[in-house]
User: Fold these one by one.
Assistant:
Number 1:
Amino acid sequence: MKAELILSTEEIEEIVEKVCQRLLPAIQANDKRRDDSILNVSGLAAYLKVDANWIYQRTRRQAIPCIKKGKYYLFRKSDIDTWLNQDSIKPLSPFSITKNRHRHSDN
């Protein structure tokens, strides 16, 4: 038995509007969690649990997001968090693991 649902454009728009209304509080809460505090080199080194020289090396190579004011390097914590997440390794899904197991057993 096959059921078919036919919706008008107005009904679809109403559904979309209701979904958006329900998602908006979660989106706004996520924006509020953004931490725009400013760290100096020693604060960033402590946050990342690395040596300050490691920070200086990356600032010289422009490999880490920073703000330079005079002789001071400053770091917005939210920018650092975004920078860190760019290199995060995503876990494999159980489906890809299962798929790979079957491929190896075919050999």
Number 2:
Amino acid sequence: MKKFFKEFGAFIQRGNIMDMAVGVVIGTAFAAIVTSLVNDIIMPLVSLATGGVDFSNLFVSLNGTNYATLAEAQEAGASVLAYGSFIQAIVNFLIIALCIFITINAMKKAKEKMDKKLKKEEEKKEETKKSDEVVLLEEIRDLLKKRK
């Protein structure tokens, strides 16, 4: 049991775990921003374009009773298929996926640019770096000059 806790402690203290924890926290905050973007900006524009359809209020009551709003159906305890909420969740997902795609693409391009720059610097250093033989010959030359 002692070995188990020791291994668990080592696992928790690894850098990757901490990075993942920070990623989860940032991801949660990012999801809240995207949800607000979808609910407060995109969906009202989509609703305007579709003639005033409120996606958050699209539902089907499974008990056959007609309700004016989703909230009214839920208050009555009716079973409903809230497909409007599902549509909003899909839009949220697509926006998050797009943002992640753009971010990863930008990071990939930045990494390629940095790798290219580092490769050029290394090539430059190799060009200017003298071989061991040249260094040795220069030392011999300098010693011979001192003897004369």
